[in-house]
Amino acid sequence: MSASKCPVMHGSMTTAERSVTEWWPNALNLEILHQHDTKTDPMGMDFNYREELEKLDVQALKQDLFDLMTDSQEWWPADWGHYGGLMIRMAWHAAGSYRLFDGRGGGGSGNQRFAPLNSWPDNGNLDKARRLLWPIKKKYGNSVSWADLIMLAGNIAYESMGLKTFGFGFGREDIWAPEKDVYWGSEKEWLAESILRYANEEDPESLEEPLGAVHMGLIYVNPEGRDGKPDPMKSAHDVRVTFARMAMNDEETAALTAGGHTVGKTHGNGDESRLGPPPEGADVENQGMGWMNPDMEGLASNAVTSGIEGAWTKEPTKFDMGYFDMLLDHEWELKKSPAGHWQWEPVDIREEDKPVDASNPSIRHNPIMTDADMAMKLDPSYRSYMERFRNDPEYFRDTFARAWFKLTHRDMGPKDRYFGPEVPAEDLVWQDPVPAGPADYDVEAVKARIADSGLSIAEMVSTAWDSARTYRGSDMRGGANGARIRLAPQRDWEGNEPARLNKVLDTLEPIARETGASLADVIVLAGNVGIEKAIRASGLDVTVPFAPGRGDATEEMTDADSFRVLEPIADGYRNWFDSSYDVAPEELMLDRTQLMGLTAPEMTVLVGGMRVLGTNHGGTRHGVLTDREGALTNDFFVNLTDMAYAWNPVGDNLYEIRDRQTDAVKWTATRIDLVLGSNSILRAYSEVYAQDDNQEKFVRDFVAAWTKVMNADRFDLA
Fold first, then answer.
1. pLDDT score of 21
2. What does the pLDDT read at residue 673?
3. DSSP string of 96-152, one letter each residue
4. Local structure of 458: helix, strand or coil
5. Which of 599, 617, 608 is nearest to 641 (CA)?
6. pLDDT score of 10 more than 80
């Protein structure tokens, strides 16, 4: 059949198709809110990973992984007969994509299986590591996720080479499609010049937020040096900022660098131009694998990945102190690898101190260092830690084990989300610990005290919302549990309106103290009380669900600096936007909505409800499209969709809504308000809530979405 007569829409099933957003690129794209729709999940609605984990034979799984490490396979031979270095790199690069600013990336979802991560240059040949794991994943099936298996393989690799790890927690649930919500950078090519990411290349802190790497397609930094130009001090700057954006300090960074390069090797013994395309660009006969090497000839020593070639230590399959001796006791000079990439090699080294060839033990090669390794030698801060580690091996092992645990668990949220026999008993401050809260108090008595407190509906609802809205599903941080809104830095955030917040807290704290409830619970209950009052004012009687048991975190349990990244820069739900940001307010609202785990319909109903409740930041009237403020009515949607009114821009992010007949200004609004009537999808939702027969549906949908936000951080309710 000729192409012209083929009944299939050509190109519509590939990434080359012309999408709706290509025709209208400025239209608000809601796709990120529904990217992991249940239709993409083969496990079905009833699948419960936590229940499947209960069936897992952890010791048997670990033994199979131990056995795999030294079972070199012909189709992808292991360096020195040990897959440890490859498995560590796989786990490291899965976890290392995490960034603190928005909590996205990381190894908590098995996202390394999908584009773009599966085809990043920095992830070259990690497809082979995952394929080596497939027989084990097949054997244990639903009882271990890919995300957990990838991380555990890294742990077992270290243990098999002599490290006593700090522990391990299962509980990472897999996704089944690429994460379209993660902004990895604006570049259109891999490894583009770093200047594209820096406002000022001489200022490492000016790296574009929320990015955590200096080049598109890298986890951290270019191992040859910034833009491929060796300069250890510039590399030190880049390493420091990228690891800080992963919540690591200088000591942790130095420990991770040393511990990561104590084992394994880099691969660049060949012509990288001969490699095939990455997985996403490879043809079907490669079965999802990329970077196919026609010159490998069954030898591990012929592999080409980064283009740098060599091992860091004399014994790369042992976790020992060899890295420090090699780095600190030799002078180093720049040389080119067989693949033509910059690397550092020792000026003078004894033959017996060199590592042997990865395939032929009768051959020895020079060890190598990357530019980032040289930064550990030349930067004064990093050098001090290198010296300390070398002088105290036990301290190094403990520091590295803890840093590795943090790296591989940072995006899992509080410890109660961990599962398994090796979860450490110690509470770590970066886990945002929250003590268990009381659940045996009289909830109705607390509600009665709140109702009689004199607080307004807007005050109660706004405070509960501000407490809960910090939650982000990307790394399960934030939320109402812990009542950290009363602690630094949250108590002073502009978005939390400190004057109003302090008034509400001063009122609610005695109620919590005198009734035996946690303040975290009382804050949420106050929001519920306000909503129930507003529902009754609308003529309905609906109870807002509540589950007690939140605890109150203390200052000692709170790393204030790490919580600064949770500060909102805008909140469309409370109609608050800082115009100094060069981003449309509706796009910021989508980002916040996705982090909270809400859908587009839930976003729509919450915005409309929050407006009529009078919860706008600063008490502004923008978007309060009702004459019955304080009653939970569908007036916002009724008036937004009413053609009796016209909408006129009158300033930056400000609009007047005028009566068409009298030209009188009825209301004012912002882009956040009007986008619910202008975007075709959001208007469809708004019209549902504007219908004469859907006032009760609006209220019940609002209550359901509200409860979802209040409970988002309650893993114990899942």
1. 73
2. 98
3. TT--TTT---SSTT-GGGSTTGGG-GGGTTHHHHHHHHHHHHHHHGGGS-HHHHHHH
4. helix
5. 608
6. no
Choose among 172, 169, 205, 181: nearest CA to 31: 181
Question: pLDDT of 275-289, one tens digit each?
Answer: 999 999 999 999 999
pLDDT score of 539 more than 60: yes
Amino acid at 406: K
Q: Angle 393-409/146-160 helices, nearest 10 degrees?
A: 170
The angle at the Cα of 299, spanning 339 to 224, to the nearest 5 degrees, equals 25
Residues 317-341 have a mean pLDDT of: 98
Residue written as token pair 């060796």: 230
Burial letters for 528-563: b for 16+ Cβ neighbours within 10 Å, e otherwise?
bbbbbbbbeebebebebebebbbbbbeeebbeeeeb
Tokens of 453: 């407190």
SS3 call for 665: strand
Q: Which DSSP state fits 582?
A: S
Mean pLDDT over residues 179-208, rounded?
Answer: 86
Q: What share of the chain is helix, strand, coil (3-state, %, to 5)?
A: 50, 5, 45
Type and span of the H or E element at 52: helix 49-53
* Sequence-separated (6 or more) residues with CB below 8 Å from residue 319: 158, 161, 162, 163, 259, 262, 263, 397
Q: How many CB atoms lie within 10 A of CB 349?
A: 17
Whole-prediction pTM = 0.95
Largest CA distance in the chain: 94
β-pairing verdict for 654-659 and 665-669? antiparallel
Tell me: cis bond preceding 361? Omega within 30 of 0 counts.
no
Phi, psi of 409 (to 5 degrees): -125, 0
Q: Rounded CA gap, 123 and 112, in Å? A: 9
Rounded to 10 degrees, the C-alpha dihedral 8/9/10/13 comes to -100
Task: Check residue 480 and give its pLDDT.
Answer: 98
Residue 259 burial (CB count, 10 A): 22
Listed in sequence order, the DSSP H helices in 491-650 are: 498-515, 519-537, 560-563, 585-596, 600-612, 635-640
Give per-residue pLDDT as tens, 84-97: 999 999 999 999 99
Sign of CA dihedral 341, 347, 351, 352: negative
- The yes-or-no verdict on residue 9 having pLDDT over 60 is no
CA neighbours closer than 13 Å in the CB half-sphere of residue 542: 24
Q: What is the residue-wise DSSP string for 157-192?
A: HHHHTT-------B-PPPPSS--TT----S-SSTT-
List the structure tokens of 718.
Answer: 């899942």
* Active-site amino acid positions: 93
* Proportion of the chain above pLDDT 90, given as a percent: 89
Task: Tell me how far CA of residue 250 lies from CA of 48, 76, 232, 556, in angstroms.
Answer: 39, 36, 16, 22
What is the rounded average pLDDT of the residues 685-699?
Answer: 98
Structure tokens at 643: 């053609």
